[in-house]
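Entry:
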Amino acid sequence: MLEFMPLFLFLSICVVLMLGYPVALSLAGTALIFAGLGYLLLQMGVPVPFETRMMGAMPNRLYGIMTNATLLAVPLFVLMGVLLEKSRVAETLLDAMALLFGSLRGGLGISVVLVGMLLAASTGIVGATVVTMGLLSLPTMLKRGYSPALATGSICATGTLGQIIPPSIALVLLGDVLSNAYQRAQLAMGVWSPKTVSVGDLFAGAVIPGLLLVVAYIAYLIFTAWLKPESAPPADRDALKRELGHTGSIWPLLLKGLIPPVLLIVAVMGSILGGFATPTEASAVGAFGALVLALASRRLDFTMLSEVVRTTAQVTSMVFLILIGAALFSLVFRAYGGEELVTELFEALPGGVVGATLVVMVVIFLLGFILDFIEITFVVVPIVGPVLLMMGVDPIWLGIMIAVNLQTSFLTPPFGFALFYLRGVTPASVPTSTIYRGVIPFIILQLGVLLALAIFPQLATWLPSVL
């Protein structure tokens, strides 16, 4: 019974998180309780499989987290995203896209997806994109006769593009966890000069799957508008112009809205994919570019800047506190022999590496119903990552598969964060059940892209290999 202590630790963590306790404190507190229990049982002479000497590595682990140059990208990308959110870059762009596509069936939905794609590639913050889209586009879509389920579903799904389209904070965190897992896997196999997988590799690998999701969303909106014209009717362009307060040509408006985010995307992603800068250096470029755009929009003042800095500090503190809790959890899990237990479990599964990967993907998808992507990244990936990588799975492909899978956690009820964000800005006339019903087709589309990645791994590995 005592040999299953790692599984009891994992289940205890899940239960404590479901009870609503803070993630970082849940991870660290539960791990410390189990560490204390293991030490106590050893003192009592009980033969528990707990390596107490491994706990001595904790100070070095914490020092490594706080001095990790890769993680410096987190506060800078958060700063970039919050600056763009406060400077309202999305408003002009969304107005222009609505005027450009609004007269088509499903055109307003298509404009939401395209603007969401650009916001994802420039901010990378899911909550900001969902709330912004909900405030700006949902009233117009409902007023123009769109089905509430289709309108809310498309906004929620579009908001989650920030999870997979780089520069994504989720990919930064996942890249760091996978890099450590890959090095551990190679050292376990006797490779003493291990290769690394970088955040830049994951950024490159996520480009094609991200664009594939955008195409899938747009195709679904066009198909729905063709199948059920009343659910996504065309809007009268002149009436839309009057409503948005733009009476002239839409092209100056489109250029005004399109040029700033595109320049920022080229500066950040172009520098990474072109090999001119690391993701950490590119995040500094992005933060500076967002500051320039905020100044150019004439919305930057001391009050706004203080709000931006405060929000950035809060999000960054939360992420690093979770990292510390996750490091402690991982250490206690390994001290109990958790890695060996998971390896034996995976080796006993039918289907070899395919069966093991399938089980991991199913578990991550199911955990997405009850846990956030950060919790799954820091709790599950360090456990299963080294084992799968030792079985010969490509680290970039695995990272993108996990990222797309984690994207569904924002949409799956009851704890999908995109649903909560949109519920907060949705009129009371639209029930929560409608939002839940609206996201189901988009969850299916995300799983479809996940299946395509499983069948054609080159969708994730081709671009990094070329670069």
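The mean pLDDT is 83.
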